[in-house]
Design a protein that fits this description.
Number of helices: 11
Strand order of the largest sheet: 2-3-1-4
Number of strands: 4
Radius of gyration: 33 Å
Oligomer: single chain
Structural class: alpha+beta
Strand content: 5-15%
Largest sheet: 4 strands, antiparallel
Number of domains: 2
Length: about 350
């Protein structure tokens, strides 16, 4: 009984392929040849897509878990990248950790300091400049040092005015060049920059970027292996059908097309699930982050998954599924010749 059902399936496959191959000849001679071929091409793709969707729906649990495994592998590097972007916003921007302090000469008054502040803020490599007068500097020092009463006994204020310069970009060479440029301004006694902290900061950021990049490459290779192995199992399950298709004249492209759609559909499902996992995971983690930040008097919170990043994730997953399926079919296509 099983052999008869299998024979009928192969026969119907042969009839379907034969009909698809003969279909263009059934159109009238007045119809342009390009339109006939284009219609046959669209019909072939539609049939392949419908066939792939129906086969995946016949195995919903297996298809779901395959997409889930791919989604976990996709969400890890994207999640780490999003966390790294959020860490860069923690407590403001990283540029503030690399501020250049311009200590002014004692004879520079508040008006001259404010004028120089505006001049520095207009420079192309400067994001922001803040003027701290001598009186403000003394008041802050009294509060932070706890020597308020002792400092009141001083005959005059020994602290100079300061301009805090926030650079546009954290780069060691550019910061040093900017520091030297600012040190030559009139009224500036000393321009100070903690380059060691800048180097540590830059090294931490580069380490995070490199780790995410390496993890992405590793998981992309894993995804290609997962989708390739899944498509290989589908090929083995349809080996007899494929041999019949090739026997009646089916081309390699016709044989390959349903598996490519299947790989793209796996990628689409994985991308959507990964997007949902990231959105839920960041939302769940954000609750603890907000509570912790509130204890330090900060309103910092994790951002969600941007729509652009989510769409890029889905498109990338579809491409990975397509490429993995193409590699799997290309490897086994030579073995599928009719015997």
């Amino acid at each position: 009984m099983s052999a008869e059902r299998k024979s009928d399936s192969n026969k119907s496959t042969a009839e379907r392929v034969g009909g698809a191959l003969k279909k263009p000849a059934q159109h009238g001679v007045d119809e342009p040849e390009f339109k006939v071929l284009f219609h046959a091409w669209l019909e072939s793709h539609r049939a392949s897509l419908v066939d792939s969707v129906s086969r995946l729906l016949k195995q919903p649990i297996g298809s779901f878990f395959t997409c889930l495994v791919m989604a976990v592998a996709l969400s890890l590097p994207m999640g780490l990248a999003l966390l790294l972007d959020n860490v860069e916003r923690l407590g403001g921007s990283w540029q503030r950790a690399a501020q250049i302090s311009l200590f002014m000469q004692l004879e520079v008054d508040a008006a001259a300091g404010a004028e120089l502040r505006d001049e520095v803020a207009a420079m192309p490599d400067v994001a922001e400049a803040q003027w701290i007068s001598r009186e403000q500097a003394l008041e802050e020092f009294q509060q932070l040092s706890g020597l308020g009463e002792a400092l009141k006994e001083l005959p005059e204020n020994p602290l100079p005015g300061v301009i805090l310069v926030t650079p546009e970009e954290v780069d060691k060479d550019k910061l040093e060049a900017l520091r030297q440029q600012l040190a030559g301004l009139p009224g500036v006694q000393q321009a100070q920059l903690d380059l060691l902290w800048v180097e540590r900061l830059t090294a931490i950021l580069k380490l995070g970027d490199r780790f995410v990049f390496g993890l992405t490459l590793l998981l992309v290779a894993t995804l290609l292996l997962v989708i390739g192995n899944t498509i290989r199992l589908h090929i083995e399950n349809r080996r007899t059908e494929i041999e019949v298709v090739k026997l009646v004249g089916g081309t390699d492209g016709y044989v390959r097309r349903p598996f490519l759609y299947m790989g793209a559909l796996y990628g689409l499902g994985a991308g959507l699930i990964a997007w949902l996992l990231l959105a839920y995971g960041l939302g769940w983690l954000n609750e603890a982050v907000v509570r912790l930040a509130g204890l330090y008097g900060s309103d910092f919170g994790l951002g969600g998954v941007p729509a652009g990043d989510g769409l890029s994730l889905v498109v990338g997953a579809v491409l990975l599924g397509y490429i993995g399926a193409w590699l799997a079919v290309a490897r086994h296509l030579s073995e599928l010749a009719p015997r």
